[in-house]
Amino acid sequence: MTNFKTKKKFGQHLLISEGVIQKIVDVIDVKEDDIIVEIGVGTGQLTEEILKRNPRILYGIEIDETAYPIIEERFKDYKNFILIKEDFFDVNLRELTNGEKIKLVGNLPYNVSSLILINTTFYIDILYFSVFMVQKEVAEKLIAKPKTKNYTFLSVFIQTFFNVEYIMSVPARFFKPPPKVTSAVVKLTPKQELPVSLEEMKRYKNFISKLFSNKRKMLRTKIDKDILHQAGIPETARVEELTLEDFLNLYRLEKEREID
Predict the structure, then answer these.
(1) CB-based burial of residue 180 (10 Å sphere; 0-12 exposed, 13-18 middle, 19+ buried)?
(2) CATH number corresponding to 8-190
(3) Using CA atoms, how far apart are residues 149 and 151, in angstroms rounded to an integer?
């Protein structure tokens, strides 16, 4: 680990606190039948703690080639560890696990954490849950309520599909190198009844994204007034005032109109 240099372009900050690592793995609740996928192995601190608890298999996805020799040496005796030498965005999780359900974990690279959160939502049908370390400001968006400054596209999209639990904050001193921000651990558990089907998820995502563009503009500039009236929403309302139910209602009404 001593000769490994973290790289800014990959947003790498290695978690070095054993206590925090153990708490995260406690939340993952490793069972011997589990298939676990870790995004961003780094030098393997979290990986090792997961492997100590003996899951059926742990796939570790890592983009940084300089980390490969360290990871391979460190885990050469573990038969249940498979290193995936790729960018997470190039990995098809369904193919990787033959459609079996997984627990998805990782200390996410700060520069792409929101993109990863959105991307993993499209695998919701094979997720037991996800446990991620992200910037605290991203975690706050994930649990934000309407009419607050943290309420964004990410809040609405993720909350549509997941119950989000804020587990703990993690100060910068627990990382090497210390990031300029506080981090947080979150757990995302898929809702039992999905209000939007997997097939429609992309369309729904685009719909939410459209409403959040030009945030300060009134909704009547983005969506038909008749639809707003049907949904009982004032034309002068702004997007950050809408509840999750409002978004789902507007989405259904607009979709019905397109079908008609």
Answers:
(1) exposed
(2) 3.40.50.150
(3) 6
